[in-house]
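Pilot study result, target chain (500 residues):
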Amino acid sequence: MEEQADIRQYWGAVKRRKWQIIIPALIVFLVSVVIAMVLPPRYRSSGTILIEAQEIPESFVQSSVTGYVEERLQTLTQVILSRTKLLEIINRFGLYEDLKDRYTTEEIIEKMRENIVMEPIQTDVINPRSGRPGSATIAFTVSFEGKSPKEVTQVANVLASAYLEENLEIREEQARGTFDFLENQQEQLRDEILDLEAQIAAFKQAHVNELPELMELNLQTLERLERRIDAKEEEIKTLVDRKIYLEGQLATVEPLMYTVTSGGRRVMTPKEELEGLRSEYLKLSATMSADHPDVIDLKKRLDAMEGEVGGREKLRDLYKRLRDKEGELSAARKRFSEAHPDVIGLKKEVRALRDEVDVLSRKQTVLKTEDTKPENPAYITLQTQIASTEMDIKTIRAELAQLREKYREYQRRVENTPQVEQQYRALQRDYQNAQAKHQETTRRLLSAREAKGLEEKRMAEKFTLIDPPAFPEKPTSPNRLAIVLIGLVLAVGAGAGFGS
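Predicted structure:
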């Protein structure tokens, strides 16, 4: 009973306020109907573009265009939605004429960007490399929304064509740019290699005998030269000893075998002549005074003869002592080293005796050859042998000087080789690096040439318009029925609000 009473009270209130409920509700509903009818229709035209994979497997020819499809789509979208492109389309089809008086060009272009939609179409795939499931973009749609169905169809077709053309142009430009860059790099590396080859050739020419590959040969040559120098020094020492020996022998041989009178008769030897001069001097001194010219002349001859004959005897003694000391030195060297005091002392004695023999021998030779020409064959033979030995010594000393100069040259080569090797290795390393870079760049250039051919022949990844934008038969907005229904709901709410 109480519930029926409440319903009657509510119904009575509705009857009393029916115009307060109906009028606002009717006004709201009519406004919504007017809005649904007044709003201009908007049409949308869209096309579907398929992303086709490269025709030739990537294991054979790899494209030079890198990046994911999604990245390239975003790049293409930014290019197509650029101010220049959109302004060209607006002017071409006379779009947004009604807005040009109220909005700036930038605002109109932004309005057009809002009316263009690019939506990728993805599908689930299995990654061939990792084998894991994932998603991949296989196509995308491009749509344009506007008031005129003809205009939206035309603009949508232009946008779809722009995606196709820009994709081809960008891919070809990237492939061509990659190829040109690698070709330029290859040319630069080729010039660098030629320059390094010229530097290496000049370096080799400047250090032809100091290169590291000749180090072993230079060391072997240095050892051979050292042995030859030692041999030459030993040979000179032997020849010097031989000369001293010959000079000692020469001092013991009479240059004249006999004296010849004015009649051609052989008289006596130098010793016999000395004895004769002494006898003659005694006889002459007994009969003449000491100041007599004949006595003075005979005295001079006697003194000279005595000095020469006495010098010969002294030279024989010195030579004998020299031979003995040399024998002692040879025996001492076999027992002791060169630094032993006995060896050092014997070497000094031998050197002193050699100098003394040499001086006395030259003096005797001068005395003998001042006034007379030697006739003794043995004397002449010794003189000849001494002269020959001196010539041999001179020749070998000249050869020794050449060997020492050559030794110093090879020694300089060996000493300079480490520094030369460091510079040479640096040049070789730069050359090898340049060659490796050139080979790698050549390999990449061949790949870039193949990729460029793919793009030019349209065999690389490409966009194909599989569903061109069609003429829209009905508008996509506004949804008039939905607006009316929303208006009806709002009208009920408004009536209930004013009637409460």
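One observation from the pilot: The radius of gyration is 63 Å. A full batch analysis is planned for the follow-on phase.
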